[in-house]
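Just scan this pair:

***
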Amino acid sequence: MRKISAQLFISLDGVVEAPDQWHFPYFDDAMGAAVDTTLGTADTLLLGRRTYESFAGAWPEREAAGGEDAPFATLLGDARKIVVTHRLLPPTWRNAEVLDGGLVEAVTALKAGTGSTVWISGSVSVVRQLLAAGLLDELNLLVHPIAVRSGTRLFEEGGAPLPLRLVSGETFPSGVLNLFYAPAAEPGTATYEDARAHLPRNGD
């Protein structure tokens, strides 16, 4: 069975929209190495339409230019890219295809197959749907030390709480937190009265 993982650049106030406007000042060798061990190892990418169009508009040209990021661009080009969209989208990037059928059904079939981890980059609407369906195995958040203060946030208001379990974390020299979460069981039933037992008492 394959694992489904998602990686997002996110601000301190939860914004994931337009990271190109606030992310790059925090990109360093540590983050480059982290991305290389995730997206750089993927043989299959699952992308929302906007993320796909952004990638397809940049990475093929970078590969052709032969610069420092050309090897990573080649890895992305060689990966199978499944695009989640309801619009007519003739894929122009090699190894790209439009998702066939519903997202939940298609990802369920992907999970049941063989191969390495299926990685999602950005694609917030896809991540939300898979979290709600219980199909996302891992959520990698690269938390940037900036409050963007406007834009789409990863978690919308409303709906049931979504418990997560921190699997691992590290801090980059830039101050970015590289956090890996997995789905968790529902929180316990403890109340404030239970928490009071852990509060310091006078004189402690």
Notes: The chain has a mean pLDDT of 92.
